[in-house]
Amino acid sequence: MTEQTTKASFERVADIPADSPTLIEGLPGHGLVAAIAVDQITDQLGLEHCGTITSEAFPPVVTFEDGLVQDLVRVSAGSDPAVMSLESDLAIPQPAFEPLSRCVLEDLADEFGRAIFLAGAPAEAEEQLGDVTGVATTDSIRDDLVDAGIPTADDRGLVGGITGSLVQECYQADVPAALLIVRSHPFLPDPEAAKSVIETALEPLVDFDIDTTALDEQADDIQQRMQQVAQQYQQITEEGEDQQQQVQTGMFQ
C-alpha cells in the first residue's frame, strides 16, 4: 500500500471577521441540498470570501460565475451572525476526501467554534421530503439539537462521501459538530429540501433568519443551474462511489 502523500492547503485571502463562528458545510451531495442551502445563506448574509482550499487531488477544472473565475473550494465568513461557510461548485472526488477533511481540521478548526454538516438522503415516500434528523459528535451538540427541536436519529446508520469524512475527522479530534440528514428528492436537485433544513434546523441552531422565498420563486432556475453539478455527482456515484456517498438511515437497508 502506498503512503498517502496528496495534501490540501488553506490559502487565506482575508481575516476571518468573527471569533469562533459556526462552520456550515455546503459541499455538493445527494439532492444538492447542502450546496443550495449554503449558497443561499452565503449570498443573503453577504459572507466575505476569506480563502480557498487547494489540492492536487481536485480535478483540473475552472469554475466561473457572472463572468469571473472563482475558486473551486471556497471559505467565506461574516460576523453578524458569526458564520463560516465551506462551498464548492464541483462534487468532490473520492481521492480528495481525506486531504480536504484533514485540511479543514488542521487549518480551520482553530477558527470555528462548532461545525454543522448537511447530508441529503433519498426520500422513500413523498411525505418524507424535507424531514430532518440530527446526529452529534458530542453530548453538548446533541443537547443543542434537542433544544432546537431537531429529532435525533434513532436508528443505526452511516454517512459516506466527503461529508462522512469531515464528520469522522471532527469526531476523532473532539470538535463539536452536528450532522443534519435531510430527506430529499431521489433524483433531482431539491430546493424544497434545502428550504426545509434552513427553516427547521439551521435557523434555530445558528439563531439567524434567512429569507427562503427565493428558493420557492426560483426553484426551476436553481434546478437548472445545479443540474450540471448533479450530473457530475451522479457520474461519480455510478463509477463506484455510491456506497461512500449514499446516506443509509438503517444499518441493514
Q: Flag low-confidence runs.
A: 240-253
Quickly name the level 1 CATH class.
Alpha Beta
DSSP strand content: 25-35%
The CATH H-level homologous superfamily:
PAC-like subunit
Strand order, biggest sheet?
1-3-6-7-2-8-11-9
CATH-defined topology = Rossmann fold
Helix content: 25-40%
The strand count comes to 12
Average predicted local confidence, pLDDT: 87
Give me the number of helical elements. Answer: 7
User: How would you describe the shape?
Assistant: globular
User: How many separate domains make up the residues?
Assistant: 1
Elements, N to C (H/E): EEHEEEEEHEEHEHEHHHE
Question: Care to describe what's here?
Answer:
There is one protein chain. The protein is α/β, with parallel strands linked by helices. The chain has a single domain (8-248), classed as PAC-like subunit (Rossmann fold, 3-Layer(aba) Sandwich). The chain contains 7 helices and 12 strands. It has helices spanning 33-45, 97-108, 139-147, 161-172, 191-206, 213-217, 219-245, and strands at residues 8-12, 22-26, 48-55, 63-65, 68-70, 73-79, 82-88, 114-122, 132-136, 158-159, 177-184, 247-248. The strands form 3 sheets. The chain has an 8-stranded mixed β-sheet, with helices on both faces. Strand 6 (73-79) and strand 7 (82-88) form a beta hairpin. Helix 1 packs across helix 5 and helix 4 packs across helix 7. The longest helix is centred in the last third of the chain and has 27 residues, at 219-245. It is globular. The chain starts with 7 loop residues before the first strand and ends in a 5-residue tail after the last strand.
